[in-house]
Structures are given as C-alpha cells and as structure tokens.
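Minutes, project check-in
Item: structure for the 275-residue chain
Input as provided by the requester:
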Amino acid sequence: MLSKLIKYEFRAMAKTFFYLYIALVAITLVNVFTNPLGALMQTGGGGQGAAGGHGPEIFAEAIKGLAFALYIVLILAVAFVSVVLVVRRFYTNLLGDQGYLTLTLPAGREQHMAAKLIVGVVWNTISAVLIGLTILLQVSVMGNKNYIIEFFGAVDPLNIFLGILLAIVGTASFFLMTYAAMAIGPNLVKNHRLGGSILAFVIIVVIYQILSSLFMAGGLMWNISNPFRPDMGSEALTNSIGSSLMVVSIAMYAVTGVICWFLTRFMLRKKLNLA
C-alpha cells in the first residue's frame, strides 16, 4: 500500500512541478543565450555600451535584465512551491475535510506519513538540484568556470557528501517538524487551527535551536581543544571543524525528526482533530 500511496502523491504534485521546472529551464536558456548576445552587440557597436544610446545595445540590456529578473522570480517560486505544496497536501489530506476519506483507506497513519514525507523530500531534492545546475550553467557561461573548478577542488569530498546528507536529513526533519506542529496546533489553540499550528511550530523550532546551539558549541570546542587531534594546517583544520559541525547537525536533525515522527503519529492516533 505504501508504494501506491507514494505513486499517488507523485502524480498529485507532478503537474505543478513539471510546469515550474519547464519555465525555470526555459528562462535559464534565455539567460544563457542573451548574455553572449549582449556582448556581441556591444562589440558590434564599436565598443560603446548601452549608455551610448544605441538601440540594439539598449534592447539587449533590457532583455538580459528582464530575463534575469524572471529567473530570480522562478527560483523563488520553485523553492516556495516545493515547501508549501508538500505541507499543504499533508494538512488537506490528513487534517482537513479530506481526512475523513483518507483515513478510511486500508493504510495505516504511518504509511500516509511516510508516503508524504518521502515524496516531499524527493521533490525538494529535485528542485534543489535543478536550481543548482541552472546557477552553475549561468556562472560558467559568464566566464567563471575556473572559479567553479577551484571551489569544488578546494572542498573536502567528505564535506561535500556530508553537505548533501545534511540537506536531505534537514529537509526531512523540517517537514516532520511541520507535520507535528500541524497535528498539535488544533489541540493547542481551540478554534484557531492556523494560529495553534504556528505557535506549535515556533515552540518546536525554539527548542531545537537551543539544543542544537548547545551541542554545536560543545562539538566545536571539543574539535578545537581535542588533545588527540594530530597537528594539521589551517585548511585541514577548517575542513575538520566543518565536518564535525555537519555531523552534529545531521545527528540533531535526525533525532528531532524521529521525535516529531512519533509525536505526529501519536497525535493522529489519539488526538486527531479534523477540520
């Protein structure tokens, strides 16, 4: 049943993401082609820029500016929709009016939660990868390929792996914190589901931030003052500290996610308050 729920969730959100991704790729290609076009027109104009008053240069600069502005808007739209759509589907399907129908399906609450969490993390990962690729493409077209190569060459491969793992675990933990807040909200503030959910989310985040800061500070101090750590250069020390902090963050996100998972499951089983 879990596989069927996952397939249904993918289909339910695929159309929205498909149109957003197509638009983002299209505007990225427009930026890629208009960047050298502007330079070509300026060269053909005898080295005078758009400030020289020439129509073609002004037109090229206007197209470039509009395309870049649309690109920024689409990046924000993809990031916003990637989060809001996942959260909204959890609320409407399990806590809203549709919850009466959804919970009659031959699937446990854990399966519904797992399906929505898996699909949400996958869509957000795809969105992040696509945004990253479009940024790298535009940076390389602007003649900064060497900076990209130098950046990835200077970063420890372990830190790259930990960074990817941190992003995935952090995304899952964020959604689980949101699910827990929405499940708790209606029981926290009567007759005000949204206000109660926001208040519950703030409480969860504050508790997480306090505990995370304490563990991060402890991990940082241990890494710096560790008597068993071998002598290393500044770059190696920086990579070591970065790795330690990411490991602590991953552990904190994982623990928080597990707690929020069981908290959400408990609320859906024992304290469910449908709209």
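Outcome recorded: Residues 155-275 form one domain.
No further action items on this chain.
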